[in-house]
Design a protein that fits this description.
mainly alpha, 2 helices, elongated
């Protein structure tokens, strides 16, 4: 028989706030990486940007 699971609680609310905070920081850090993209050198600069974004996302994934 199915049971109802509630995710309301102090611990869950704290976890959600922490996730929102990490998401904001991740967005901020990824936005800052835009400076790595040089319009005059797209083919050379975009791979570096992709690598930097992956590194930042991996760091945040490890933290959460």
């Amino acid at each position: 028989m199915a049971t109802t699971v509630s995710d309301d609680g102090v611990g869950v609310a704290r976890w959600r706030r922490a996730q929102r905070g990490r998401t904001r920081l991740l967005s901020r850090d990824v936005r800052r990486l835009r400076r790595l993209i040089l319009p005059q050198r797209l083919q050379a600069s975009v791979p570096d940007w992709i690598e930097a974004v992956r590194a930042v996302v991996d760091d945040y994934a490890d933290a959460s």
